[in-house]
Description:
Helix content: 25-40%
Radius of gyration: 16 Å
CATH class: Alpha Beta
Strand content: 15-25%
Number of helices: 9
Number of strands: 6
CATH superfamily: Alpha/Beta hydrolase fold, catalytic domain
Structural class: alpha/beta
Order of helices and strands: EEEHEHEHEHHHHHH
Amino acid sequence: MTDLFKHHRIVTDGVALHYVSIGAGKPVILLHGFPQTWFEWRPLIALLGEGYRIVAPDLRGIGASPGPVGGDDKVTMASDVHAIAEAEFGDTPAVVVGHDLGGYVAFAYALRFRAAVKALIIADAPLPGTSLFEAIKGNPRVWHIAFHGARDFAEMLIAGRERAYVRQFIHARIVDTGAVPEDDIDVYDHAYAAPGAMRAALEIVPHIRPG
């Protein structure tokens, strides 16, 4: 199925963003989580079927969207996504779907570019200001938010161990570990082992207040 995707680049704010597209019809934007790339959406895209024009970017600094240190906040990433949306959809609003890390980018996108959003769908990312968001702060399953917020320290401990970290991070959060094949983990390992990629992801994960 990956042969059906078209790969694109668009330069915005000095960054050559990579995204894939497929299909024709109603606009849909898919924003990946951590520690994934656009690649995570392939099974969902297959289920959606025809009638949709789907775009799935690699967020700034991650995967095939290399970026400079800095500008990795969710508002800047939302602006990146809007540049892609304008290029693909013009003024037509899109359904925006965000998973995990991508959920916060999607939330920022909806706040800043409301007219460009037909609907907002967020998975595995409780919104700031909600009771659920406040409740998870004491949940040991979200230890990674504080860890990822330890600038430089987290990167130092993960460096050279990206595959082990990515694999354990994914397996600790799913019932069926076979749902994410080892080949997929290899893809994510390659993406996050690239210079600056882990920093780009860790910079945004802790900063999940709107604005």
